[in-house]
Write a structure and sequence with these properties.
The protein has 4 helices and no strands.
Amino acid sequence: MSVAHRVTGTGLYLGTVLIAAWLVAAASGPAAFDAAQAIAGSFLGRLVLFLYSFSLIHHMVGGLRHFVWDMGKGYEPQTRMNMAKFTLVASVSLTVLIWIVALVLR
């Protein structure tokens, strides 16, 4: 899970660069914004956004796991394994739930 936390942190960095590029396109005028929207709305763009949202949620849930450890709890071997499994299940579940809600409300 340590490697996954680092990978999602890197994904957050790269995704934030893409969001900044999208904001620059929005500020640059309708033509640039339309081009950015076409890329973001494509299958690949939505896949990148899905992975970015997963990275954000996974990194947050992993941070909560570390917060529990900072309080001096959860160091038993079985508890650590259960927390690692929960982190992955919660990350996937929350990401899918958020996307379902977003698509339904769209």
